[in-house]
Amino acid sequence: MSDTGFRPAHGEADWYDERLPRAIRSHRGNPFRTLATVTLVVVLASLLGISSAYLIIEREQPLNAVTIGPWHAYPKAGTSEADPYSVAIYTRGAVIPLASGEGLALVAREDSNGHQLDPTCEYRIAGQTPSARLWTMTAVDGHGHLVKTMSGRVNLASDALLRNADGTFEIVAATRPHSGNWLPLASDARAADGLRFVLRVYDAPVTTGAALDGVSMPTIDRLGCP
């Protein structure tokens, strides 16, 4: 009995025929080349992801900041809504942020003119702060570490502050003592060490981003440098 079934005129092998136009000719894949390409893509993607994460963490500035003049606040830092990068930054620096029910920390890395703070210079911090039961102003280095000062202290507290009749204040941040409100800076500071001012307000209503809208914050003006 003869085979009357359908037989295709062409088989799969015909698609690799050298006589076919290059545009429609199939190419036999090289498994080693495919494996090498996939491996290269995975390695490059991993390096890109790790590098970008490292750069964000290394800059030591959490995300989702609320900016008021030279001051930056991170209302979500001590909450469950904190982003993974910010959590990694705090963990790497062994920093425990204030919880929303405790208060809020505001950090200044620049003066009011946008210049990086320099621990060898003198600054005037003047104006008002958000209402709070207590607040402290601290001078730390560029990595957030406490420094050694001539007086042995690195901060000022609101309960021991001299104020003007209208409730405003002026603080001089400098290495050497000053009359009035003096915030000591590092006694052997170098410009490369960096400088930050950290204002921590406790038992205050301004613990969320919305509550910070319209809040008055002190200005930071450079008085001079050696």
From TrEMBL:
InterPro entries in UniProt: DUF1214, DUF1214_C_sf, UCP009471
Origin species: Roseibium aggregatum
TM annotation in the entry: 35-57
Pfam family, one: DUF1214
Database matches in SUPFAM superfamilies: VPA0735-like
Keyword Membrane appears in the UniProt entry: yes
Designated name of the protein: DUF1214 domain-containing protein
Keywords of the record: Membrane, Transmembrane, Transmembrane helix
Domain DUF1214: start-end pairs: 103-204
